[in-house]
Amino acid sequence: MMKVTQHLWFEKDMESAVRFYTSLIPSSFVGWISTIPADNPSGPADSVKLAGFTLGDQRYMAIEAGPLDPFNHSFSIIIECETQAEIDHLWDALKEGGSTEHCGWLRDRWGLSWQITPKRLGELMGDPDRAKAKRVSEAMLKMVKFDIAGLEAAASD
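^ that's the sequence the OP posted. Answer follows.
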């Protein structure tokens, strides 16, 4: 069976990012960290770092090889949370040194985009009562960090 792994390119500080990410998300771990032992286009032998890690149930590989293309919204990591406490914890940790955006999006200090979303949002937006789903959508679009109680209130209006 083929394996699929997301790959992240860091300009610098890749090991700190990987260790930080895996400390935040349950069932996450760093599998390995290494260097490229040969001279390569990004630098001399052992100057380019590589890492393999798992976030929840998703496999990633990372490289620290100097500037290339910065992270952007074309790739983000979505974390679906059960509780407001989980949302608050991840939001506060990931936004430190980064920036926040509407609809549960933020960029961490390395520039990687994250979407911290409540599982309940998908349930409410998929409700067969389209008027309810519309109210929830309109409430969601006004939020920066998601507030489950606010989404529930919009659903019950």
